[in-house]
């Protein structure tokens, strides 16, 4: 009998990520830098696969096109967008232990007073609004004239390019612009591994619609985004919707729903779907004095489009994918408990789809294995591992989520066949080398 255990604490995942080359602490040899993380060889491939899946899901639609805008933008963009005045979090200090934290996230006592999360004191300073934008200077002189901001969201690069994209691509409304890129927020309390960091990557799409059709499109995009998360293999039981009410709504939002995910530290936001109305284009129109109207030929009318936005953090989505994929299969054997750790990634997301494992590193097996590797389709990412016992190599591949292990043994020299091992069922199948591409493609389809 096999018992399946899912991920219970984040630290188990953090250790696996370091041990297996997914995510390392940034600047680790200098003691690390708070909330900054580096993606290792497997993590960077996983990230690329997640981003590619998102990019394709957006741009394969004929009504969505891509963009890659710069991180530094004209400072007036942030005045117009409301980020200079409104993009703040309430900050307080504890008078007792001097801890600094977000007032709105701090625990409360029976009287409704906020408490310091570290020492539980209710002796706190007055709340101040802390702007989350990182500031830097352009050019050699550090004065007010050279002040620029690192973008806190990728969305504004899309709004200010609305006319460029619409005109150059001859797009008719409704249409969307999709973008992936880094954003920066000087979060007061970053944490939970790659969940909340100060430097992160966003995948955002702004869909421009005619006024009055926004609520319909909002519902449509909610449904599409839900399906996207399922298409990554995320367990539907770990996903649900959270509706923003009243003062939860961001300064630009008319309607907002979050897809929330059940992380080991609780249900938290994964993606936001927002109806931004005509807030952003109207603001940019006002501050730039440029008309950002669209002429609807069919209706013979001019209007400022409304925007439905979908916004998800690549890093946060990767954390959800990692948490969801983790499982321990515990079997009782005569020698005691045997634990197989498996990262059950969807094959499109797994850093490698196949691992070629020669049973021996000696010739002529090595040459045959290298020839097999060279003959595999370019579309596959393939690992090649000759070190250690075959059992240990299988376990390593399970732990990094490789769907198929391809074992080349001494018989392969005679029968011109190899063994394919399925990550989830551990079933093995003998396949002629000449039929490998098709057999691998078929086996990959059996993973969900
Ligand atoms: N343009 C709208 C916007 O940026 P948001 O809800 O502030 O909306 C969208 O951010 C998504 O970006 C979030 O749902 C989350 O996935 C990700 N995100 C935001 N802040 C983050 C942070 N500090 N670290 C990691 N991801 C973050």
Notes on the protein architecture:
The protein is an alpha+beta fold. It folds into 2 domains: 2-87 and 133-323, Bira Bifunctional Protein, Domain 2 (BirA Bifunctional Protein, domain 2, 2-Layer Sandwich); 352-444, Anticodon-binding domain (Rossmann fold, 3-Layer(aba) Sandwich). The protein is built from 13 helices and 24 strands. The chain has helices at residues 10-19, 41-59, 75-81, 83-86, 155-159, 162-168, 214-231, 279-288, 314-325, 365-375, 390-399, 410-415, 436-444; strands spanning 2-6, 23-25, 37-39, 64-67, 88-93, 100-102, 128-131, 134-137, 147-150, 175-184, 199-209, 239-243, 255-263, 266-277, 294-296, 301-303, 306-313, 326-333, 336-343, 354-358, 382-384, 404-408, 417-422, 428-432. The strands form 7 sheets. It has a 7-stranded mixed beta sheet. A hairpin with a 4-residue loop joins strand 15 and strand 16 (301-303). The longest helix has 19 residues, at 41-59. The two termini are 23 Å apart. 33% of the residues are buried. Bound molecules: glycyl-adenosine-5'-phosphate (GAP). Residues 153, 155, 185, 187, 196-197, 200, 202, 204, 269-272, 309, 311-313, 315-316 line the site of glycyl-adenosine-5'-phosphate.
CATH architecture verdict of the largest domain: 2-Layer Sandwich
Shape descriptor:
globular
Ligands in the model, by name, code or SMILES, are: glycyl-adenosine-5'-phosphate
Largest sheet: 7 strands, mixed
E-strand count: 24
Gyration radius (Cα, Å) is 26 Å
What is the terminal separation in angstroms?
23 Å
Low-confidence stretches: none
What is the SS-derived class? alpha+beta
| Proportion of helical residues | 25-40%
How large is the share of residues in beta strands? Answer: 25-35%
Fourth-tier CATH superfamily name of the largest domain: Bira Bifunctional Protein, Domain 2
Number of domains: 2
In round numbers, the mean pLDDT is 96
Strand order of the largest sheet: 4-10-11-17-14-13-12
What name does CATH use for the topology of the largest domain?
Answer: BirA Bifunctional Protein, domain 2
**Number of helical elements:** 13
